[in-house]
Amino acid sequence: MLRLISAASTLALTVVAGAAQAQDFRTLARQDLQAAHDQLRDNHPAAVIPGAAGDRFRSWLDAGLAEAQGKAGQVQSGDTHAYLMRYYANGFRDGNIAIRPTYEGLGPFFAIAWPGFTTRWSGNQYEVAYVRQGLRGAPPIGSVLVSCNGVSAEDLARSKLDLWEGDLNTESGRVRTAPYLLWNRNNTFATGMPQFCTFRQGRREREYELKIQPIDAAQIEAAYRGAVYTPGATPLAIETINGRPWINVHSLADNADWAGFFGQVESQVQTLRGPQGFVIDLRGAEGSSMNATARGYGLANRIWTPEFTAPRQPEAGTITYRATPANRQWFVDTLARMQADPRFVQESASVIEQTAAIVAAFDAALAAGQQTFAMPGRPLAEDTGAANPVQGPVVVLVDGGCTGGCLDVLDMLTRLPNVRLAGSTTGVDSIFIEPTVVRLPSNYADLSYGHKAWTTRQRGDNQPYQPAQGLAYTGNPADETAVRTWVGTLFQ
């Protein structure tokens, strides 16, 4: 694996495992952009699915490639290569399409210049959320950014953050990228740190000169965490807060300690089901893993029962597949891995049978020259009349970090009795689901995209969950004490 080290100026590549000492990143960028475009054009279902989601994909596929290729001459390092790849992928406005570095990239806690404070997105505006201790001449916390160097805060955000750092057409994209608005993150395609910015405090506006402050990794991390809720080192745990269980599920990743966590849940299930109620905290539960939905369903089945939750899962409807040899091969390879695992064969014979049926459907569609074919999804389970074992109220706490499989879990949790959704607006995902990953020619990036279309999904394309009135948290999401105190009031 290669680690590319950033610096303030154009710099060379640190080479690991015998790679060449210098690379023409401009050529690599053009090559990777074209390869990503061709892979999506030839295999992504959105290319041939009618409707708004397909139209959005097709409008960017070629136009976005041309736009990104026009910027490739500015690529001069691994960092700028990664930024341009992200720009093209984010332009599809589909959270299930991504181009990520295969090496350790910049990460969220990185800047080469910053003014000693940072902003957060709140109430449709950018406001100061964190100021370095002892910093003089900075706008006070809560000040609203009006403009910088004569450019409005919105126009600055669009030029500097949108597509480069995230999707500003979504609330979650606004929240997660807001700390970077006044930082220089070594993106040569966008402006760096502005010199003069105007902030509003109440009705009064004042211009401040932003001065570069020393870069300290701990300060940069604290500044980001002071503006955006960021899960800690232990994503899975059960605590007791205000006299009731608080179930932390801040990750749905495969490498989290699910065995230990599920053991905790099972040992405390009688308490969880008691009249006092409990909290399921899904903030930051990024769910890009193929198993993310199953992990969340596994938690629900342990707290309630499979007999109670299964009839309340959303109806799957039909799934549309694009009939291409590459997409068929993905299922062939998946089926082979399933059949080679004795435990999976023993425990999941129905999944193997279903996957084999999909491969057969690919063969039939390809032989007939069809572009697509549809398969029925999981049938809705019959309601056996099983009683609800959970006596008390349940609050499910979410934020913009709840994405992908986390949203699938909400599709089911929000259908259970006495469950309320609280917090802030979640992330979004498209109807193009189940990621496939392709290594791009440079070896420095992977393209991932959803390779089948859930055209009948009850939750619409790119539709987030938004807590109802009275259940939306409007304070600083990074103030954990305030968040927990507020959640406690929801049980009163």
Percentage of residues assigned to helices: 25-40%
Query: Strand count, sense and closure of the main sheet?
Result: 5 strands, antiparallel
Strand content: 15-25%
Q: Gap between N and C termini, in Å? A: 52 Å
Give the overall shape, derived from the CA principal axes. Answer: globular
Low-pLDDT residue spans = 1-22
Rounded Rg: 24 Å
- Mean pLDDT, all residues: 92
Count of beta strands: 16
Number of helices: 15
Judged by helices, strands and strand pairing, the structural class is alpha+beta
Folded structure, characterized:
- The chain is α+β, with helices and mostly antiparallel strands and 492 residues long.
- It is built from 15 helices and 16 strands.
- Strands 1, 11, 12, 15 and 16 form a five-stranded antiparallel β-sheet that branches.
- Helix 2 runs antiparallel to helix 3, helix 9 packs parallel to helix 14 and helix 11 packs antiparallel against helix 13.
- It is globular and about 65 Å long.
